[in-house]
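A quick aside before the break. I want you to see a complete sequence-to-structure record at least once, exactly as it would be stored in a machine-readable document. Don't worry about memorizing anything.
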Amino acid sequence: MMYDNLKLEKGMYNEAGKSFSQVLEGRDPSGQYQGTAMEGLDAFQRQLKRFDIKVKGAGSDIVEKFFQTSESAVLFPEFVARAVKQGMEEADMLPSIVAATTRIEGMDYRSIASAPDAANGTTKKIGEAEQIPATNVRVKDELTKLDKRGRMLVASYEAIRFQRIDLFAVALRQIGAEMARCQLEDAVNVLLDVGAANSFSLSDLGGSVLNYEALVEFWAKFDPYEMNTLLVSTDVMLKLLKIAEFKDANAGMNFQGTGVLQSPMGAKLIRTAALPTGTVIGLDKRFALEMVQAGEVYVECDKLIDRQLERAAISCVTGFSKLYEDAVKVLEV
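That is the input. The structure line, written in tokens, reads:
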């Protein structure tokens, strides 16, 4: 079945375990368009082409174009979801701190915990007939807490029908950016929940001010892990940027060229308002945190298709779980 005679209907949003895009792709596989003018477009983009809906650029259509037919209206919730996801991705800091992302169907999930058998050691040589040291992997007793984050889209159809689609997408991307910031707050709250052994003050590091020596001492606490990421509050970032070692010319050139700040120890430096004042979280990004996602970005499809935008919910459900406790450490300055 080719894209231009595919039947579009509301029920495509309700197939269990599949997103609208996956359903669309299943009925109109992209592989069959290799070597054609449609190569490089996914199934949704081919439907936009079918109904001649331009969603960006100088020739962007108005929102009303989605509702020229009952079938083209079915595309509108997917457009909204994609614009929101784009906003989330543009503002997303989570890839810099998440070791693994798990997608689930449902609301109940238990992560894993693993630890080496300390009694047998992990680095000794293994003699003939000796037992190989074990790492015990088990399912955690507690469920990973999942939170719904979202926004209510409040706008009458009459208010937006003549707006350009690319301008409307800006508002949707802003909703996505706010949802991403909320997810980061959830992740930070999980990371801050560390035991006394992994929580430090400046006095624990042999000093009273945040300087290069204190950072080196904090870095040294991570063995056998690696401190490759630092999350810091805004006030701490200001203090760090005044440390002489952070004024290194090569580091400055990297920041000016890429916008990415590096600490003298090579850790990626991330400033976030999600952290309390005077707080630093150091972590080994490879082993610290798991992100759990229950489904995709959800939009109230029926309302959007039926032009009932007055109170249409856009939301996503995510949770976070620490993987290796010693891969995360907190410093109060």
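Two observations worth writing down. Residues 216 and 265 are 8 Å apart (CA to CA). The longest strand covers residues 312-322. We'll return to this after the break.
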